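Priority: medium. Attachment 1 of 2:
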């Protein structure tokens, strides 16, 4: 049976042992690589080409859960690493933020506070050429969700 030679050394001698340092160096490198690789994310990616594809003015056909249809126009413009949608749902007075990665269009959850009500909006869709198809939900905070499906056509 092999005995660990570090067991018989004093604590100071163990800390100064080359074997101790090589093991700790290996552990340190593994932990460092884990943090470096784990810190890589999509924030560093360039989605400007995807953003340019979706920027523009769209004619929207918006159908709610009761099959009521409303037609309106929205404008999508670049904003940082994403986009902003003005006149969202034909009800919003402030822009709604969204992202596009490839052809996937995402409206992350956003909270808007009015004088009498707070709502949360979120959704997702697909960009296919000049057609943007997306679903969005408005959560009114009173256990009532307003669900919509939109077909938007980019205007020339």
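Attachment 2 of 2:
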């Amino acid at each position: 049976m092999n005995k660990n030679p570090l067991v018989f050394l004093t604590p100071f001698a163990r800390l100064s042992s080359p074997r101790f340092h090589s093991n700790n160096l290996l552990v340190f490198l593994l932990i460092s690589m884990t943090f470096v690789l784990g810190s890589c994310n999509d924030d560093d990616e360039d989605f400007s080409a995807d953003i340019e594809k979706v920027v523009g003015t769209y004619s929207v056909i918006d159908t709610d859960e009761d099959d009521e249809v409303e037609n309106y126009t929205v404008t999508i413009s670049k904003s940082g690493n994403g986009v902003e949608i003005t006149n969202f749902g034909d009800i919003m007075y402030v822009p709604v933020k969204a992202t596009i990665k490839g052809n996937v269009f995402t409206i992350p959850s956003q909270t808007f506070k009015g004088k009498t009500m707070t709502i949360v909006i979120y959704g997702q869709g697909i960009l296919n050429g000049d057609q943007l198809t997306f679903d969005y939900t408005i959560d009114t905070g009173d256990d009532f969700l307003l669900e919509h499906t939109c077909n938007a056509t980019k205007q020339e």
